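User: quick one, fold this
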Amino acid sequence: MVPYPIGNAPSQRFRVELFEPYLKEAGFSYEIAPFMDATTWKHLYKQGSLLQKAWGIAKGYLKRIKNVLIDVHGYDYIFVHREAAPLGPPVFEWIIARLWGKKMIFDFDDAIWIPNTSNENSIAARLKCFWKTKHIIKWSYKIAAGNDYLSKYALQYNSEVVLMPTCVDMERMHNGTKAHTNHKPIVGWTGSHSTLPYLDNIISVINALQAKHDFTFLVIADKNPELPLKSFQFVPWNAATEIEDLLRMDIGIMPLKADAWSEGKCGFKLIQYLSLAIPALASPVGVNSVIIQQGENGYLCNSEEEWKNHLEELIANTSKRKQMGEVGQQLILKNYSTQSQHTTFLQLFS
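Assistant:
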C-alpha cells in the first residue's frame, strides 16, 4: 500500500518501486495499491482545485476500504509505505494488523510524526493525525526506517526495526558517470516544491560567487523558483530525462535547516549526485554527515563562509571534482544502491 500513483513520488519510487525486479526474481507475487490516482496527484499541490482534490481523496478511501476488507486476505504480508491513507486516524492499519492479524511491514523515510505540510493543503493539515505514526509502528511486524534518527524513534515502540537507506539502482537507472571536463561549471540542486525554501539559505553565497566566477546555477524541480541570479537555469523535473538532467551538474548541493524535521531526511539528493560521480556539498544535518566524507567525496558546510570557500574550490578545480566524484560513486554503490541493499529489503518478508 503506497500513497501515490506509480512513477511519481521520489520516496515511493526509490524505496518501493525500485525493488520490484528483486521481488519478481525471488518469486514473490505482489500488487502495488496506490491511494491516489494520477489525476488527484496532478491537482494535489495546486492552489484551489478543491473539488478535484476532494473527489480524488474520496475515491482513494473507497479503494482502501476494498483493499482492507477484501483484498488483504489473499496476501501473507502487507507492506505500507508511510501510511495507508493521508487523513484521519490509522484505522486501516489497525484493521490490517490488529483485527485481521496480518504481518504488516511499515516503511518510512521522513520524520512524519512531526507536523509539516504545505500552504496549498493547510486545511488538510488539520486532519493529518501526525500522532498515528507511533501506533502504526507498534502494530507492525517489521519496520524499515530510512536512517538512524528514524530508527531510534521507531525503536521506542517496536524492537523489529531494520535500517533501510533510500537507494538508487546503479544498473538500470543511475548508471551514468559525470565526465568532468573544462567548461563553464554548473552548480545544481534537485528537489520538489516542498524543499525549495532550503535554497533561501544559499542564494546570497551563489550571488557572491557569480560576481567572481562564471558558472550557472541549475534547479531541477516541479516548480520554478525564479531565483534572482546572474546565471540561472530551471529544468522541469521529468522522469524520462531525470538522469540526463542531473548529469548537467558538475557540483550538487543540499542545504538544510538544523531542525528535527531535517534530521529525518535520508540524504537522497546527495545519493543521487554521488551515484553519478558528481561531488556534493551539504549542511551537516542528520545522515548528510554520514554520506559526505569530508574532503573525499564532498564537503559539509557549517557557515556561509564554508559554503563559499568549498564551492569556489570545486568551481575552479576540474580534476578535484572528478576525483571526489569517483570516490562518491563507489560509496553509493557499496551502501546506498539496490545492488547492495536488495537482500535487506527481501529479508523484511521473512
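User: anything notable?
Assistant: The chain has two domains: 10-164, 186-335.
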